[in-house]
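Hey,
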Amino acid sequence: MSWMKFATLLVTVSVCLGCWPVPKVDQTDYCFADIAYEATIKRGNVDEFGSEYEVDIRKVYKGNAANIPTTLQGFGTMNSCGPQKLDEGATYLIYASMAAGESPRIVKYTGIAYVTDTDRQRMAAYDCSCEIKFSSFFDPLSLPVPTTRDQCNAPYNYCQRSGYCKRSSVGACFWANIGECY
């Protein structure tokens, strides 16, 4: 019977922490996504289990425009992280992942009114081969030392919006900032 209590506790904790604010920057979501584009929402349907949208793709930043479906899936209202609700007629910058045979699934979306030219410039500079290291949750002032040229450390007071990891002229990854921190 005690294993049943443990299993219940484990499920409860995992559901509660499903949207835990793990340290990340925009580059983390961009590099996780298979495609990144600006799109206007033509139609949408949100229910308890998921959301589905028909989109008009305006500009592609990552991926092959010819291979990007015009449907998009997201979380529904019963998801522990909340629904991914996009407004019809609105334009968004969307990062999405693709699984074989399925519509793209939203990784992150931002209303286009909140995307600046500096954001687009930084997005074009992302190097997805660089691994970003963050300080320990329990000791935020301690930073791991990069062990390879493909790693860089985010400072403990990094800015999620402007910070990113890029390669130097000698090929090593390092932390940089473009734009304001807000």
